[in-house]
Amino acid sequence: MRTRLAILLLPPAAAAVAIGLSAAPAVAATSWTVKPGSVINAASGTTTLKDTTTGTSLACTSSAAKTTLRSGSGLSGTSIGSVTSISFTKCTGPLGLAFTVTAGGLPWHINAVSFNSTTGTTTGTLTGVHASLSGSGCTAVVDGTSATANNGKVTITYTNSSHTLRVLTTGGNLHIYNVSSGCAGAIKSGDSATQSAAYVITPAQTITSP
Asked: What is the number of domains present in the chain?
Protein backbone atom coordinates (compact mmCIF):
# COMPACT_ATOMS: atom_id res chain seq x y z
CA MET A 1 0.00 0.00 0.00
CA ARG A 2 1.26 3.32 -0.87
CA THR A 3 0.59 4.75 2.41
CA ARG A 4 2.70 5.90 5.13
CA LEU A 5 1.39 4.18 8.17
CA ALA A 6 2.20 5.32 11.44
CA ILE A 7 2.87 -0.21 13.71
CA LEU A 8 3.21 -1.76 14.44
CA LEU A 9 4.95 -2.51 17.35
CA LEU A 10 4.21 -3.35 18.64
CA PRO A 11 4.51 -2.68 16.83
CA PRO A 12 4.22 -3.61 15.84
CA ALA A 13 1.22 -4.27 13.97
CA ALA A 14 1.37 -4.33 11.52
CA ALA A 15 1.45 -4.13 10.60
CA ALA A 16 1.58 -3.69 8.62
CA VAL A 17 4.60 -0.62 5.24
CA ALA A 18 7.81 3.26 3.37
CA ILE A 19 7.94 6.85 2.39
CA GLY A 20 10.86 9.18 2.49
CA LEU A 21 12.24 12.51 1.41
CA SER A 22 12.62 13.14 -2.29
CA ALA A 23 12.80 15.89 -4.85
CA ALA A 24 9.04 15.90 -5.29
CA PRO A 25 7.10 16.62 -2.10
CA ALA A 26 4.28 14.41 -0.93
CA VAL A 27 0.90 15.91 -1.73
CA ALA A 28 -2.08 15.61 0.61
CA ALA A 29 -4.70 13.43 -1.01
CA THR A 30 -8.39 12.73 -0.51
CA SER A 31 -8.90 9.97 -3.08
CA TRP A 32 -6.97 6.71 -3.28
CA THR A 33 -6.64 3.63 -5.46
CA VAL A 34 -5.54 0.30 -3.97
CA LYS A 35 -4.75 -2.86 -5.94
CA PRO A 36 -5.34 -5.70 -5.20
CA GLY A 37 -6.26 -5.02 -1.54
CA SER A 38 -7.90 -7.68 0.64
CA VAL A 39 -5.96 -9.69 3.29
CA ILE A 40 -2.23 -8.99 3.52
CA ASN A 41 0.63 -10.47 5.51
CA ALA A 42 3.38 -8.25 6.90
CA ALA A 43 6.73 -9.55 8.17
CA SER A 44 9.45 -7.52 9.85
CA GLY A 45 12.94 -8.14 11.14
CA THR A 46 14.04 -6.20 14.21
CA THR A 47 11.30 -4.08 15.74
CA THR A 48 12.34 -1.54 18.38
CA LEU A 49 10.43 0.38 21.04
CA LYS A 50 12.43 3.16 22.71
CA ASP A 51 11.77 5.20 25.84
CA THR A 52 12.98 8.54 24.53
CA THR A 53 13.37 9.97 28.05
CA THR A 54 15.64 7.29 29.54
CA GLY A 55 17.03 6.04 26.24
CA THR A 56 16.11 2.44 27.10
CA SER A 57 15.08 0.22 24.18
CA LEU A 58 13.10 -2.99 23.86
CA ALA A 59 13.96 -4.92 20.70
CA CYS A 60 12.16 -7.88 19.17
CA THR A 61 13.97 -10.01 16.59
CA SER A 62 10.88 -10.27 14.39
CA SER A 63 7.25 -9.28 14.07
CA ALA A 64 4.36 -10.57 11.98
CA ALA A 65 1.03 -8.90 11.27
CA LYS A 66 -2.12 -9.61 9.36
CA THR A 67 -3.62 -6.58 7.65
CA THR A 68 -6.64 -5.88 5.52
CA LEU A 69 -6.75 -3.19 2.84
CA ARG A 70 -9.76 -1.86 1.02
CA SER A 71 -9.67 -2.44 -2.73
CA GLY A 72 -10.68 -0.22 -5.64
CA SER A 73 -10.54 3.44 -6.61
CA GLY A 74 -12.02 6.64 -5.19
CA LEU A 75 -11.29 5.40 -1.66
CA SER A 76 -11.05 7.62 1.38
CA GLY A 77 -7.68 7.54 3.11
CA THR A 78 -9.33 7.32 6.52
CA SER A 79 -9.32 3.71 7.71
CA ILE A 80 -8.17 2.56 4.29
CA GLY A 81 -6.90 -0.54 6.05
CA SER A 82 -6.54 -2.19 9.43
CA VAL A 83 -4.15 -4.36 11.39
CA THR A 84 -6.21 -7.27 12.68
CA SER A 85 -3.43 -9.20 14.43
CA ILE A 86 0.23 -8.63 15.27
CA SER A 87 2.83 -10.60 17.19
CA PHE A 88 6.40 -10.06 18.36
CA THR A 89 9.11 -12.68 18.80
CA LYS A 90 12.15 -12.88 21.12
CA CYS A 91 11.85 -9.47 22.74
CA THR A 92 14.57 -8.21 25.07
CA GLY A 93 14.16 -5.07 27.12
CA PRO A 94 15.47 -3.17 30.13
CA LEU A 95 18.12 -4.94 32.22
CA GLY A 96 18.44 -7.60 29.50
CA LEU A 97 15.10 -9.12 30.53
CA ALA A 98 13.10 -11.27 28.14
CA PHE A 99 9.73 -9.63 27.47
CA THR A 100 6.40 -10.69 26.06
CA VAL A 101 4.69 -8.01 23.97
CA THR A 102 0.94 -8.37 23.57
CA ALA A 103 -1.08 -6.13 21.23
CA GLY A 104 -4.41 -4.79 22.45
CA GLY A 105 -7.27 -2.67 21.16
CA LEU A 106 -7.25 -4.37 17.78
CA PRO A 107 -7.95 -3.65 15.01
CA TRP A 108 -5.52 -0.77 14.60
CA HIS A 109 -6.42 1.57 11.74
CA ILE A 110 -4.30 2.43 8.71
CA ASN A 111 -4.87 5.93 7.33
CA ALA A 112 -3.40 7.27 4.08
CA VAL A 113 -2.60 10.99 4.16
CA SER A 114 -0.27 12.03 1.33
CA PHE A 115 1.32 10.60 -1.79
CA ASN A 116 4.66 11.20 -3.49
CA SER A 117 4.26 10.32 -7.17
CA THR A 118 8.01 10.42 -7.82
CA THR A 119 8.87 7.74 -5.28
CA GLY A 120 5.50 5.96 -5.34
CA THR A 121 5.29 6.35 -1.58
CA THR A 122 2.27 6.90 0.60
CA THR A 123 2.60 8.54 3.99
CA GLY A 124 0.00 8.02 6.68
CA THR A 125 -0.68 6.93 10.23
CA LEU A 126 -1.41 3.81 12.19
CA THR A 127 -3.86 4.62 14.97
CA GLY A 128 -5.43 2.78 17.90
CA VAL A 129 -2.09 1.34 19.00
CA HIS A 130 -1.98 -0.31 22.44
CA ALA A 131 0.42 -2.94 23.76
CA SER A 132 1.30 -4.60 27.05
CA LEU A 133 4.89 -5.43 28.03
CA SER A 134 5.61 -8.19 30.52
CA GLY A 135 8.99 -9.39 31.79
CA SER A 136 10.29 -10.88 35.02
CA GLY A 137 9.17 -8.33 37.63
CA CYS A 138 8.82 -5.56 35.04
CA THR A 139 5.54 -4.68 33.34
CA ALA A 140 4.25 -1.67 31.43
CA VAL A 141 1.70 -0.48 28.89
CA VAL A 142 2.29 1.46 25.68
CA ASP A 143 -0.53 3.69 24.40
CA GLY A 144 -1.25 7.26 23.39
CA THR A 145 -2.77 9.74 25.85
CA SER A 146 -3.43 7.26 28.68
CA ALA A 147 -2.93 3.60 29.56
CA THR A 148 -6.46 2.74 28.49
CA ALA A 149 -7.12 5.26 25.70
CA ASN A 150 -6.31 2.84 22.83
CA ASN A 151 -5.28 5.87 20.78
CA GLY A 152 -1.58 5.35 20.26
CA LYS A 153 -0.39 6.69 16.89
CA VAL A 154 2.68 6.19 14.75
CA THR A 155 3.61 7.58 11.35
CA ILE A 156 4.03 5.07 8.56
CA THR A 157 5.04 4.96 4.93
CA TYR A 158 4.43 2.46 2.16
CA THR A 159 6.50 2.34 -1.03
CA ASN A 160 5.08 0.49 -4.03
CA SER A 161 8.38 -0.54 -5.60
CA SER A 162 9.72 -2.27 -2.49
CA HIS A 163 6.29 -3.20 -1.08
CA THR A 164 7.66 -2.20 2.32
CA LEU A 165 5.74 -0.57 5.14
CA ARG A 166 7.89 1.41 7.55
CA VAL A 167 7.04 2.58 11.04
CA LEU A 168 8.83 5.88 11.64
CA THR A 169 10.17 7.32 14.87
CA THR A 170 8.72 10.77 14.15
CA GLY A 171 5.17 12.09 14.24
CA GLY A 172 3.72 9.67 16.79
CA ASN A 173 2.22 10.07 20.27
CA LEU A 174 3.27 6.86 22.03
CA HIS A 175 3.83 6.96 25.79
CA ILE A 176 4.66 4.38 28.45
CA TYR A 177 2.29 3.84 31.40
CA ASN A 178 1.73 1.64 34.45
CA VAL A 179 5.43 0.83 34.87
CA SER A 180 6.02 -1.58 37.75
CA SER A 181 8.72 -1.02 40.38
CA GLY A 182 10.64 -4.03 39.06
CA CYS A 183 11.72 -2.03 36.00
CA ALA A 184 14.28 -0.23 38.22
CA GLY A 185 13.84 3.16 36.53
CA ALA A 186 14.88 1.88 33.10
CA ILE A 187 11.48 2.99 31.83
CA LYS A 188 9.08 5.34 33.58
CA SER A 189 5.35 6.04 33.47
CA GLY A 190 4.53 9.05 31.32
CA ASP A 191 7.72 8.83 29.25
CA SER A 192 7.32 9.35 25.52
CA ALA A 193 8.25 6.45 23.24
CA THR A 194 8.96 5.69 19.61
CA GLN A 195 8.73 2.56 17.52
CA SER A 196 10.68 1.60 14.42
CA ALA A 197 10.20 -1.32 12.02
CA ALA A 198 10.14 -2.23 8.34
CA TYR A 199 7.48 -4.73 7.20
CA VAL A 200 7.58 -6.48 3.85
CA ILE A 201 4.03 -6.83 2.51
CA THR A 202 2.70 -9.89 0.67
CA PRO A 203 1.05 -9.97 -1.72
CA ALA A 204 2.58 -6.72 -2.99
CA GLN A 205 0.18 -3.78 -3.08
CA THR A 206 0.01 -0.76 -5.34
CA ILE A 207 -1.37 2.36 -3.70
CA THR A 208 -1.78 5.58 -5.66
CA SER A 209 -3.54 8.91 -5.52
CA PRO A 210 -5.51 10.04 -7.32
From this structure: 1
